[in-house]
Prior knowledge:
The protein is an alpha+beta fold. 32% of the residues lie in helices and 29% in strands. The protein has helices spanning 3-20, 33-40, 52-59, 66-73, 94-105, 161-165; strands at residues 44-51, 75-84, 109-115, 123-131, 134-144, 147-155. The chain starts with a helix and ends in a 22-residue tail after the last helix.
Amino acid sequence: MRLSHVILGVLVIVSAVDLSWAQPPQARDWVPQGVEALRTHASTKTEFRLDHSMLVLASKMDPDNADLKRVIAGVDGVTVRSYRYSAPSTYDPATLAVVKAQFHEAGWKQLMNKEEKDGGSGVTDVWVRLENNAVSNISVLQAKSNEVNFVVVSGSINPLDLFRLGGHFGIPKIDGGVAVPNTRERP
């Protein structure tokens, strides 16, 4: 990766942090109160929002990824909240149940709930919000023993496209899922 790409990425993130908090709050940016409770005991907090124009600019760092550009075309913004804790199990796991209840009460639909085997502390939840029978927001809550990541992607997006965004713009990669065959390359 060239130094110019790194510098451009840093500039995009810095401008996103400064501009995102100046924008008026909207229903699209709704965050369950339980997420705020998870924030209180975190030793490291990373929070930012990228609007559509910033996503387009950032996607230019990966010019050969046509799928990424296609997905970004329908995305209005990405909000990322990442909390790290100094010791494992510092946050209250019951707060995750509160977050799930708040999503349900707000009318979101849960698409995925993955919990670690053998009683481990890892949880990954994927939620969608529908408007006029179309997905308007997708939210991912990923909790591990010493970190919590909360991501909201707003705009017109297919839930499978969330996997394509994983690893970009601070969105964690979602392990597991279903392998979807590439139908474009049929012989």
